[in-house]
Every structure is written in structure tokens, then in C-alpha cells.
Amino acid sequence: TICSGTNALLTATCLIGTLIWYNSLSATTALGTGSYNTGNLPVTTTYYAACEQGICYSTRLPAVVNVNLSPSATASNGGPYNVGQTVVLNATGGGTYSWRGPDSFTSTGATVQRLNATLDMVGAYTVTVTNNLGCTATATTSLSIGNNVCFEPVRLTLVDADGTPDMPFFEIKDGMSFYEITGISTT
Known about the structure:
It is a single chain. The chain is mainly beta. The protein has strands spanning about 1-5, 5-10, 20-25, 35, 45-55, 55, 60-70, 75, 80, 85-90, 95-100, 105-110, 110-115, 125-130, 135-145, 145, 160, 165. Strands 1, 3, 5, 6 and 7 form a 5-stranded mixed β-sheet that branches. The protein is rod-shaped and about 115 Å long. It starts with a strand and ends in a 21-residue tail after the last strand.
């Protein structure tokens, strides 16, 4: 038994003559090497091995190929995320799930979480989905984490030239920098 979307390699040996494979649909279709692409659907097909010696053939020996349907795997995440958030990865398509990702990440389950997101977690996460027939498929999701760091507000006290404290209000925008300057004299 093999899984859909893979190749089945059929083997046989001829003591005399040349090996030729035939499928059950047409006795005249030679498959030569015995490699059969299973396609994407479950199917059971019988192939026959024959040894050709001139115009004579040996008895055809059957080889039955049972093809099981592979899962249809999907992977996703709820991002983009910011540093410190909980990352959630989701997969569908099978019975068991095995995840791999950046920063030596491994986990199992259809839905997994990574707590306290860091920039080391950015990148591709691949899940291998295995169905109850033992067939597998993989899917990948790309995780984005921003460095949206917020600072606590600060209270600024400005002193006018005459020594009176002044409490100004102004808008703080991205990219602004604040510096403390001490020991400046206006005289």
C-alpha cells in the first residue's frame, strides 16, 4: 500500500529475456521500468510482470498496487504579532500533526501556541500532517513578529529663563528622541 501523489516502484526479475510490465487496463501497455505515478486519487490497480523472449512471453505474474489518499494539509497563523504576544499556529487535514520552525521549535497538535513572542521566532513553520492511513503531506506558514515596543510616558518639567516651571503639552510621535540636558545657564 502506498500514498497518492507518490511513485510505486514495481520490481521483478527475469531469468531469461527482458522484463516488461503491463497494466490491467490494457495488456499491450508496456510500463518498462515498472515505475507508476499514483496521481492524486485512491485506486487499486493490478500490474503484470512478463519476461519477453523473442515473441514468447512467460506467465504474467500479478503485482497489486493499493493507493491510499494523502491528506490535504494546510497551515496558518493569526499574525502578524508583536513582541511579547502569544503566537498561535493552526493546521488542518489529518489525524496527527508535527511542527518544526525557527529557534529549534518543535511541537505536535492541530493548534499550538508559542508564548511571549520574540524576534527569534520569525520565519517559516512547517507542519507534517499524517492521516489514519499513514499517508503524509506538509504545509508551511510564515510568521511575522513586529518590534512594537511601547515606553512608559515620562513627565517633563521645563524651566523658563526666569526660573518658573512650565508644563508644556506636545504630541509624541514615532521616531522622537528625548535627551536630558543639565547644567545649562541662560545668563
